[in-house]
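BUG: 3D viewer hangs when loading the predicted structure for this chain

Environment: internal workstation, default settings.
Expected: structure renders.
Actual: progress bar stalls at 90%.

Input used:
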Amino acid sequence: MNQSDPPQIPEDWYSQSFGALYPVIYAHRTVEAAGPEAEFAAQCLDLRGGQRVLDIGCGNGRHILHLLRKTPRVAGLDYSPDLLAMARSLVGGGAWLIRGDMRRLPLLPAFNAVTNFFTSFGYFKTTAEDLAVLHEMARVLLPKGRFFIDHVNPAYVKNTLVPQSDREYKGYAIRERRWIDQARRRVNKIIEASLGGEAAGTWFESVRLYGEAELRELINQAGLQVRSVYGDYDGARMSDRRPRMIVVGEKR
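Structure tokens produced before the viewer hung:
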């Protein structure tokens, strides 16, 4: 891909990219894989039975299913009607599922903890919008409520980015093209799928690459306080060799 003339990513790419073919395009994001991730989050948050948890960007509910084993009072919010339908099918009536925009949560301050798994942050065009998400997290938390944000590690992304990959899943041929927009400090992806030689769809991703210091500052501005930062779900410390930037803290 020519970096000097990259494709245009729609500003509202997230409103179109998580649809009915999610189980095909994101087949690696399984319920089984979510188990140890939810367990690690529950440990970081000191999650106990009876506490209220909100999973922001809950997707198809794969983390909620495991969080419900810690407490029966779990809510999930997502913007995608298709993913919420999948979540309802997965968790049944066990969780309260809401469609909404994470920049304007349709909720009152009632939660002991909020979670934000697997790079469901940094979607929006401006830093002000991402800061609005953090403000909303803080607003819906009770005093001393805890948060768990799992974002990408920008150094790891830059060191390991694969410009193009091809794979097949359930008859679908899937091509992914990736590049970093240095000017906007975003990692972008175009996903194209075909079935039987016929185009099945094109999807986009674009995520802001926040460094640790910058993300800490935004979190502080939102009225939250960072307690720990991890580089992966095994509890490892952050380093250029670790894929994640998992930030855990509490409401001031």
